Amino acid sequence: MRPTKIVKVGSLKHDEGYINQAAQILKSGGLVIIPTETVYGIAANMLNEKAIGRLSKIKQRPAIKPFSLHICKKESIDEFATDIPPAAYKLMDKFWPGPLTLILKSKNQNSIGMRMPDNEIAFKVISRSGVPVVCPSANISGKPAPINFGDAIKDLFGLVDFAIDAGNTRLAQESSVVDLTGLPLRLIREGAIKKEDIEAVVNKKTVLFICTGNSCRSVMASALLKKMLQEKNRSDVEVLSAGIMMLGGMGATEQTKEILKEEGMDVSTHLSQMVTKDMIDKSDIVLVMEKIHEEKILQAEPRAKNRVFLLKEFARMNNSLDIADPIGKSTEFYRSIFANIKQAVERIIDII
After folding, report:
1. Cβ–Cβ < 8 Å for 237, 222
2. How confident is the model over 65-84, as pLDDT tens digits?
3. CA–CA dist 102, 187 (Å, integer)
4. pTM here?
5. Cα–Cα distance for residue pair 258/7, rounded to 1 Å
6. What structural domains does the chain harbor?
7. Which of 61, 234, 240, 283 is least enclosed, having the fewest CB within 10 Å?
8. Burial of 13 (C-beta count, 10 Å sphere; 0-12/13-18/19+)
9. CA 164, 166, 170 angle in degrees (round to 5)?
């Protein structure tokens, strides 16, 4: 048994060498104790069978029981998981980086736990290793997860190659674990994030309106829906709007502002934004104004197929389903477009 190399870190600015050393050992198949914001963990290269075998033996848990993956960028979720529901993206958007582990369907149709730690040391070690990293708590199975370095190293000295002492963990509590492999979701472990906070995020429906430039039609629709929800004292829906082609940071058109003001809505502070993959992924319903918008969205994110609808289609209106772009047209044309959108939104308010 070789002794574990222990380093104590304080100011990260002066400890970059230790971070790089830990990352290199991790990449090469070594085991490294690192701090996270929740508890101390044993980091290992998921692709190194020998490292995973050592880790299973140290933890005294069955080799067939997988370890959760710790990541440093949200995009990694698509590399390892599939059939990811909007609820997962909502939880990531709210709580990552942070003390929340999500159990998702893996590419081989089993399951995989994933988390993005909110600790700079862990984040840097994982990032610089350049490999997928699993990081179960630094304890033998059945014993308490360690919230300080002394407890972490107590039973593991000589069993791991490198250990970083950063004092007490910030939250001193394990991550909450949510199983999203089926519906309804299951809370496997209530940890640093409480059950009610998780449910509040998941139970809030997200509706995304999309037009071309996010300066008129989607602005009208989102403002109308927000107003109607407020009038019904409903806080269970998040309303977003975006465009498929636009110059970021532009405001609503003057005609849009004028018409909405007449209806008691102020969009003077609205700034247009380009639709992103994150917006689409976390939305339960994506409502577009024209068929071309639907095609563009599905081209960018095919997995959204069953969540994208033409607004008038979703509202079950039988006339022409496209809502024309009023840009460059008269104020009266704007008013006719607004009337169409208002009719559609009035129809969907009770559906959503």
Report:
1. no
2. 889 999 999 999 999 999 99
3. 10
4. 0.91
5. 64
6. 5-201 (3.90.870.10), 204-348 (3.40.50.2300)
7. 234
8. exposed
9. 130
